[in-house]
Amino acid sequence: MMSQDELRRLFMPEAVRGEAIVALARTLAAAAKVNFVMPRLHMYDVYSTRLDLSRKVTGDWYEGLAETVQSLEESQLTEVRLIETELAEGDCILFTDPAIDKVLGVIYFNEKIA
Question: The pTM is what?
């Protein structure tokens, strides 16, 4: 099972992207706990609200949340795929285009999502 650190290294700006990242996202999607497509604006509303709540109310902060919300806001896609996958030390959620040709963002959780 892949670790969050391995996934982080792959998504670093200086890392090689493109086909390798898309292949990894497709592999993770095949074994995902949750995998569905939803309108981008709805997904943006949900995760923007979670970001606001985490900043102002709960203090629960998840790595990649702010960057993913910004990417969802700036994207021109009509729909976005959400892929929830299990990693060694916690779960993560990847956001891609519906065909899994481009990764928009990744949110890392310190625990397993129920």
Answer: 0.85
